[in-house]
Design goal:
Length: 292
């Protein structure tokens, strides 16, 4: 329940901020008496599309802490915490990264990396993962998350999300305007868009949004393959990463909150659901590490 409320409140806050920004910039006035101002509409779509994505990126680290209850290790109080800090520090040094924040959270086996930049990142592991894996396997998972930070995956996915969001908003409203104009072609008395514009724009935004999510999910799956390969390079061998993925396949893993679904180590579906999955099936990831 806490996650749902937090997700809804965050999205409402983002939409409110973006509404104010588009109003102040004047880019929300793309419907004019002379028709559709395509330049203004593109600016509006870009502000909404990229604005939402980048606000989410900037909020990603505090949101991850709040939604998972992750506790950042500042002064290690156990041998496990000392080992975690030392291991992440060693991996970050190999990847030429500043030391990320390291956190532990209660939950089923999973881990994630997040943050707005390489200089402000967070690597977190669950208690379930620490209890279910060997130290070598946990190190491989940590290497995978450090690789996400080193590869700039959070920013890359944000940019891709911003681009597709922009096109979804732009094209949906263009089609909505064209459909509305066609429906009102014999109505010379009415001014401004009618109900056809609103309905068509909403329907198109839903349909194109679904198609866009397939594109974003594909990019997300490719970054998982790349992070696995980078983790193998950081470890000096792909074997620990392969073993960690096999172990995950035999464990009951828990999904992360919706806004963090692409950040976790666990995930992947087969069949039609694979189109929308942020992670490839574990078998495919293991095979890729083996060079098959």
């Amino acid at each position: 329940m806490k996650r749902v409320v937090l997700f809804l409140m965050t999205n409402l806050a983002v939409m409110l901020v973006l509404s104010v920004v588009t109003s102040l910039l004047g880019v929300n006035r793309f419907l004019t008496q002379n028709g559709l101002d395509l330049g203004m509409l593109l600016a509006f779509a870009a502000v909404i599309g990229f604005g939402g994505s980048f606000i989410s990126l900037l909020m990603s680290k505090p949101m991850a802490k709040w939604s998972t209850g992750a506790r950042v290790i500042t002064n290690p109080s156990s041998s496990t915490e000392v080992w975690l800090m030392d291991t992440v520090a060693r991996l970050a040094k190999r990847a030429n990264l500043p030391m990320p924040e390291v956190a532990i959270y209660d939950g089923e086996p999973n881990a994630f990396a997040t943050g707005a930049s390489k200089n402000s990142s967070l690597v977190a592991v669950s208690t379930g993962l620490l209890q279910s894996m060997t130290k070598e396997e946990v190190e491989a998972v940590l290497a995978h998350e450090v690789a996400h930070v080193a590869n700039g995956d959070m920013v890359t996915l944000t940019l891709i999300q911003g681009v597709v969001n922009t096109f979804v908003i732009f094209i949906s409203r263009v089609i909505g305007y064209l459909v509305d104009s066609f429906l009102r072609r014999n109505d010379s008395e009415s001014s401004g868009p009618g109900i056809g514009y609103m309905v068509t724009s909403i329907v198109c935004e839903i349909v194109f949004g679904i198609l866009a999510s397939i594109i974003v999910a594909w990019f997300s799956r490719q970054r998982e393959f790349r992070a696995d390969a980078s983790a193998a390079a950081l470890m000096g061998t792909p074997v620990p990463m392969q073993n960690a993925l096999r172990r995950l396949g035999n464990l009951h893993t828990e999904g992360l909150p919706q806004n963090m679904a692409a950040s976790g180590i666990a995930g992947g579906k087969g069949g039609f659901g694979a189109l929308f999955a942020t992670h490839p099936p574990l078998e495919d990831r293991i095979a890729a590490l083996a060079g098959r």
